[in-house]
Amino acid sequence: MSATTPSDMLSEINEVNLSYLLLAQRLLREDRPAGMFRMGLSEQLADALTRLTAAQTARLAASSQLLCRFRFDEHAILSALAEKGKAAQIHAAMLMAGQGVEQVG
């Protein structure tokens, strides 16, 4: 197995960022309320993401920082998401729905 270089890591972060941004934009275009809920976005952040041009999206994706993060900080949510079965998925969705949405700086 070869070692990962910093350049490789940055390239992977950029790919994740672009995928995340494009997914968020698609979800918001197809069903805004559901997209906001699934991505944990505020109205203000959803507006900003949907207004981005292709060039702005590409520049934002090129950041050296990951733009996405885990929406949950609680072990209970992570555990529920990792479990199999519909009941565990419902429990995780209920826990996540109780959390606040992201706010723009």
From TrEMBL:
Record keywords: Activator, Bacterial flagellum biogenesis, Cell projection, Cilium, Cytoplasm, Disulfide bond, DNA-binding, Flagellum, Transcription, Transcription regulation
Main location: cytoplasm
Entry GO CC: cytoplasm
Gene3D superfamilies: Flagellar transcriptional activator FlhD
Gene Ontology MF term list: DNA binding
Localization, UniProt: Cytoplasm
Entry-linked InterPro entries: Flagellar_FlhD (IPR023559), FlhD_sf (IPR036194)
Entry's family note: Belongs to the FlhD family.
Reported function: Functions in complex with FlhC as a master transcriptional regulator that regulates transcription of several flagellar and non-flagellar operons by binding to their promoter region. Activates expression of class 2 flagellar genes, including fliA, which is a flagellum-specific sigma factor that turns on the class 3 genes. Also regulates genes whose products function in a variety of physiological pathways.
Domains: entry comment: The C-terminal region contains a putative helix-turn-helix (HTH) motif, suggesting that this region may bind DNA.
Subunit structure: Homodimer; disulfide-linked. Forms a heterohexamer composed of two FlhC and four FlhD subunits. Each FlhC binds a FlhD dimer, forming a heterotrimer, and a hexamer assembles by dimerization of two heterotrimers.
Name assigned to this protein: Flagellar transcriptional regulator FlhD
Origin species: Paraburkholderia pallida
Lineage of source species: Bacteria, Pseudomonadati, Pseudomonadota, Betaproteobacteria, Burkholderiales
